[in-house]
Every structure is written in structure tokens, then in C-alpha cells.
Design brief:
CATH topology of the largest domain: Rossmann fold
Shape: elongated
Strand order of the largest sheet: 1-2-4-3-5-6-7-8
Number of helices: 12
CATH class of the largest domain: Alpha Beta
Radius of gyration: 25 Å
Order of helices and strands: HHEEEHEHEHEHHHEHEHHH
Structural class: alpha/beta
């Protein structure tokens, strides 16, 4: 026993430097793991519990009413939808699927898409799961971030509308009109549904880039050690986001696909991005990231003075005129100039 102890002491005496370095590295690794774990938990709590700003007031629009239907999401979840048909059936220009924002329901389409119906488009609007009268699952809590659940709901809505059009002997090409989370879900759906011909996105964002930007703000507020938020590369923040998703996705029972990455692989189709210049929740830079990643043809309109999902309220006539022009050109195939979509024309009523 004494020989063993003496041997160990002798070995430590000969290799004391290596032992000291190993202990220092192990201590540093443990410290960093505990530190990252702490701030991942903070980010996870904020990711799950931070509510978005109230984007839809109960009295800022008159709801529209149409034929109520039930249909299935791609995973079988029962969803509620509503057909809103343009009055002039013989001159219908096409069908647009409306994807509402988080915390809203299918009736909010009246706030954004009423001019489209008056201009000759049919609109199909629906409730995402956990919203309105669609089914709710005790194992899934909807959040403001577009997940694979909203993707399945959007694909289900598009497949339902396409089947109705096919049964009527009409072309199955459709448009998508998405607001905030609904816009991201629509962009994800368009990557796999090639019948989606034109996509209008108001307040769109990608979960990965948005969360990375928010983590930088959260770290500055909550971190007590400057090491967490100062002088870090984008790779560090992406790694922190990766850690966050490793905890968040199993806990929430869903995945959060990257809209930005989906756009890079999307087959070309027309996309119109609209964003409020004063949006402090989803900064305008987030939509600009998506615009840069999107294929042509694409358009970007930053609405001066508008906050999150408020562009239709700040510039109602321009909003109506540009959205109608976009779908007339890229869904109906009419001879509409690019200028009508890209620039602010005369501030006149839209029929």
C-alpha cells in the first residue's frame, strides 16, 4: 500500500503540470457548461412565455361571414375554415388562402383581405389548431413561432382548397396571404406545395434569425458575466440557438423549421414582403433577411410609421391597392405593371 501511495506521489510529482492543466480545463469546461445551461434556461423561459404585442383589436374591423366547413390538417387534426366568395362569380380571378397571426382566428382576414374579395378574388380563411373553433391538443401549446404543426395545418388548408377547385373543374393554382406567424407557415408550405403560385407576407420572420437577435438582447439584460454577450461571433449565437432548440423542441412536442433556409431551396414563385418600419417586436431586419434569401420575383414594402401587423391600418388604401395588384399579376396573370406593386401610386379608393 505504501509503495502504491509513493508511486502515485512520484507520478504526480513528475506530471504535476499536466495534472494542473487537466484540472484547470475541466474546471473551465464545467463553469462554461453551467453558465451556458443557466442562460439557455433563461432563453427557454422567454422563448416559451413571452407574449407578442396585441396585434388585432376587437373593434378595428367588421368580420366577414361565409360558408363554414371542417377539414383536416396533414396530421389529421380537425380544423375550421370559411369560404368567402367574390360576388361576381363569373369573373373570379382566383383563390387566396389566408393564414392568420398567432392569437387571432379566421375572421381577422377581414382586416387585411376584404379588398381582395371586392376586387374579384375568393378567399379561404381558417383557424390554426388551438385557435378559434379548430381542435385543441392537450399535448401542444401554440406559440408565436411557426412550427411543423402550423406547417401541417397550412398544407391541409391548401390541399382542401385545391381539391375543391379540382372538383369544380378549375385550375388548382392558389395564392397565400399570411400574417406574422401565418406568413412564415405559408412560406414553409410553399416549399412543398407547387400549386402555391403567389405569396404575400405581412410581418414575416424566421424563428432562427429572430431568436438569435432576441438572445443578444436577452443576454445583455440578464447576463451578469460580460463573456456571455460581448465579442462573440455569429457561430457562438447559432450554437446557443442550437442548444435552445435541443431543450425547447422535446419539451414543446414540435419542431421549429427555419423559414430562411426553406426560402433558399424554394422553387421560384412571386413573394411580396410587407413590414412595419416601427415594428419593435419583429424588427424590419428580419423580413429583409428573408427578402434577400427569396428567389425572384420578389418585392419588399417597408411601411413608414407602422408597428407589428399594423401596415393595413396605417396605409389602408395603399395596402389594398398593392395587394390587389400583386395577386392580379402573379395569381390571375393579368397585365399589371410592376410599378403598381412596387411604388405608392395615387391615394385613391380601391374598388
Amino acid at each position: 500500500m505504501d509503495h502504491a501511495v509513493l508511486g502515485m506521489v512520484g507520478w504526480l510529482g513528475r506530471h504535476w503540470a499536466a495534472v494542473a492543466i487537466s484540472l484547470t480545463c475541466a474546471s473551465l469546461a464545467t463553469f462554461l457548461a453551467l453558465l451556458l445551461g443557466k442562460y439557455v434556461r433563461i432563453c427557454l423561459n422567454i422563448f416559451v412565455d413571452t407574449p407578442p404585442p396585441l396585434s388585432m383589436g376587437p373593434l378595428d374591423f367588421q368580420p366577414l361571414h361565409g360558408e363554414i366547413v371542417r377539414f383536416r390538417s396533414f396530421d389529421g387534426t380537425s380544423l375550421r375554415g370559411m369560404h368567402l366568395n367574390t360576388p361576381n362569380r363569373s369573373a373570379c380571378l382566383g383563390t387566396v388562402v389566408f393564414c392568420h397571426e398567432y392569437g387571432s382566428d379566421m375572421y381577422s382576414c377581414a382586416r387585411y383581405a376584404r379588398p381582395l374579395i371586392e376586387a374579384g378574388f375568393d378567399v379561404f380563411t381558417f383557424d390554426y389548431r388551438g385557435h378559434g373553433d379548430s381542435s385543441k391538443s392537450p399535448r401542444y401549446k401554440p406559440l408565436q413561432w411557426p412550427s411543423d404543426k402550423e406547417l401541417e395545418d397550412t398544407l391541409g388548408a391548401c390541399a382542401y382548397v385545391e381539391s375543391v377547385l379540382a372538383a369544380e373543374g378549375k385550375p388548382t393554382e392558389i395564392g397565400l396571404f399570411g400574417i406574422s406567424r401565418g406568413a412564415g407557415s405559408g412560406l414553409l408550405a410553399a416549399c412543398s406545395d407547387h400549386n402555391i403560385k403567389a405569396i404575400l407576407c405581412d410581418g414575416a420572420f424566421s424563428t432562427d434569425t429572430t431568436i438569435v437577435a432576441l438572445m443578444k438582447r436577452w443576454a445583455y439584460i440578464f447576463a451578469r458575466v460580460k463573456l456571455v454577450y460581448e465579442n462573440h461571433s455569429e457561430q457562438f449565437w447559432r450554437f446557443l440557438f442550437w442548444l435552445l432548440m435541443r431543450f425547447a423542441q422535446p419539451r414543446l412536442g414540435c419542431r421549429f423549421p427555419s423559414v430562411r433556409k426553406a426560402l433558399r431551396d424554394m422553387q421560384p414563385r412571386a413573394i411580396f414582403f410587407i413590414h412595419g418600419q416601427r415594428d419593435s417586436y419583429i424588427r424590419v431586419e428580419q423580413t429583409q433577411v428573408l427578402y434577400e434569401a427569396a428567389p425572384e420575383p420578389k418585392y419588399l414594402w417597408v411601411v413608414e410609421g407602422a408597428k407589428h401587423n399594423q401596415s393595413a391600418i396605417i396605409e389602408p388604401r395603399q395596402y389594398a391597392r398593392r395587394t390587389i395588384a400583386f395577386f392580379r399579376r402573379h395569381l390571375a396573370g393579368l397585365a399589371v405593371s410592376e410599378k403598381e406593386i412596387q411604388t405608392a401610386g395615387a391615394d385613391t379608393e380601391v374598388a
